[in-house]
Write a structure and sequence with these properties.
Keywords: ATP synthesis, ATP-binding, CF(1), Hydrogen ion transport, Ion transport, Membrane, Nucleotide-binding, Transport. One of its GO terms (molecular function) is ADP binding. By secondary structure, the protein is α+β, with helices and mostly antiparallel strands. Helix content is 14%, strand content 33%.
């Protein structure tokens, strides 16, 4: 019987094991407890890599959904649209002037949506379904 069987002492085996350990550590550090809530919940967090022209590139949001609302430290809301293997492209729904490289971002678990009801009939709303002053 022939075939490739890596030994436990080989350099390839050590490289694979080390990369898996790093991935586990990275995923473990991207979750934080939200202590402001009355009950503990795990929050998926990331870090701003780059920001400009209403777009932010985020590293570390491992379980973000396409179209999910994310919240920056500065209370700016964004929508995760471009999901890549190592970063997420987020469209900012505010001026984002206070957002800088290294700022923290957390997922909300909510998808961007506009409610439909008679309360919204004839009203002018923004992209986050908040009524605008008319």
């Amino acid at each position: 019987m022939s075939g490739f069987r890596p030994g436990t002492g080989g350099s390839l085996y050590r490289k694979i094991l080390k990369s898996q350990e790093k991935e586990i550590d990275r995923k473990r550090t991207n979750y934080r407890f939200d202590r402001s809530a009355t009950e503990a919940k795990i929050v998926n967090t990331g870090t701003v890599l780059q920001v400009g022209d209403g777009i932010a590139r985020i590293y570390g949001l491992v379980e973000v959904m396409a179209g999910e609302l994310v919240e920056f430290e500065e209370d700016t809301i964004g929508i995760a649209l471009n999901l890549e293997s190592n970063n997420v492209g987020v469209v900012l729904m505010g001026d984002g002037l206070m957002i800088q490289e290294g700022s923290s971002v957390k997922t909300t678990g909510r998808i961007a949506q506009i409610p439909v009801s008679e309360a919204y009939l004839g009203r002018v709303i923004n992209a986050l379904a908040k009524p605008c002053a008319t």
